[in-house]
Amino acid sequence: MSYFLGIDTSNYTTSVALYNSDNNEIISKKKLLPVKPGEKGIRQSDAVFHHTVQLPELMDELFDGKQYDILGVGVSVKPCNEEGSYMPCFLTGISVATSISNALNIPLYRFSHQDGHIVAALYSADKIDMINQRFIAFHISGGTSQALLVEPDDKYFKTKIISDSLDLKAGQAVDRVGISIGLKFPCGPELEKLALNSNKKLQKIKVFRCDGNFSLSGVENKCKKMLDDGETPEDVSMFCLSYIYSAIYDTVNEILLNYGNLPVVFSGGVMSNSIIRKELLKKYNSYFAEPYYSSDNACGIAILASICNKRK
Question: How far from 104 is each of 28, 71, 261, CA to CA, in Å?
Fold first, then answer.
């Protein structure tokens, strides 16, 4: 069997994965970084420390005493492909991946965290062959809220940002609203549960846009006002999701108008939300990762290592 190891040490999750390129199967382990109650995120110094602790533990779980024929190792080295993209949390994964590459004398492949999200979504949707065609990829998470034009190249694909959040990221909006309600960080799953119990439905809301980009900063203040006015946490949660949905909806429509009726792939932790997902699936030629592959994971990184190994 031919295996490829993937490592991803994002600002939220420690992730490792083994991809079997012979039968297209994945073994994956991941663990959220611990965040103190009431806090809205984690400092990079703390993230590096927790990755240093959690990564060996997850590697023990992944290999479970077994020996695999590993042909290459892939690792996330930065958040996205834009110049200057950098976060210290990825240094932990780079260090481990480089050591494994040298010890086993196997190739080391470096990718962006965002690349991994896109490929994990394609794998989950059974659309991995789409890397050979042009499509639109939305990466909607706590650190990124972007739409990308994805085009094939000799390596695997290249990406170009065609829409971005002007301020707050969607995952940040969810967490800030969730914290104000009293939820535990990260707040996405609990906020979704509240919204599912709301008497209101997902609605279209006017969201500020400029030059193809969108703003999410208004949702936090509006939700706080709703809470102050006595509206239920359930209705506030639904409003928060409606705001994010509206920003995505307007962006997709504008992109398809400008670039043609291309397939749309959604990834990132926020896109595991069943309420937003159900509504977008009704309207577009779109593909979603299953929740496990939508949130941070190393699966796409392991698959990309296999793809690059075949093309070298």
Answer: 21, 9, 45
Beta strands in the chain (DSSP E): 3-9, 13-20, 25-32, 70-78, 108-112, 135-140, 145-152, 157-164, 209-210, 213-214, 264-267, 286-288
* Residues in a beta bridge with 304: none
Q: For residues 195 and 193, give the distance between their C-alpha atoms in angstroms, rounded to a whole number.
A: 5
How far apart, in whole angstroms, are the C-alpha atoms of residue 268 and residue 287? Answer: 12
Dig out the tokens for 14 from the structure.
Answer: 């420690």
Which residue, chain included where needed, has tokens 């309600």? 181
Contact assessment for residue 134 and residue 149, using Cβ atoms and an 8 Å cutoff: yes
Element (H, E) at 41: none
d(CA 309, CA 91): 23
| Whole-angstrom distance, CA of residue 236 vs CA of residue 200 | 10
Residues 90, 9 contacting (CB under 8 angstroms): yes
pLDDT-flagged residues of the chain (< 50): none
Cβ atoms of 59 and 51 within 8 Å: the answer is no
Task: List helix spans (H) across 212-298.
Answer: 218-228, 233-259, 274-283, 291-294
Q: Label the pairing between strands 145-152 and 135-140.
A: antiparallel
Question: Going by DSSP bridges, is the β-strand pair 13-20/25-32 parallel, antiparallel, or unpaired?
Answer: antiparallel
Q: Tell me, what amino acid is at 267? A: S
Q: Give 141's DSSP letter.
A: S
User: What are the φ/ψ torsions at residue 83 (nearest 5 degrees)?
Assistant: -60, 135
| Rounded-to-integer distance, Cα 196 and Cα 266, Å | 21
Q: Which helix (H) or strand (E) holds 125?
A: none
In this structure, the number of other CB atoms found within 10 A of the CB of residue 166 comes to 14
pLDDT tens column, 6-46 = 999 999 899 999 999 999 999 999 999 998 877 777 899 99
Q: Hey, what are 261's tokens?
A: 């009726």
215: alpha, beta or left? (left if phi > 0; alpha if psi -120 to 50) = beta
Which helix or strand (DSSP H or E) is residue 18 part of? Answer: strand 13-20
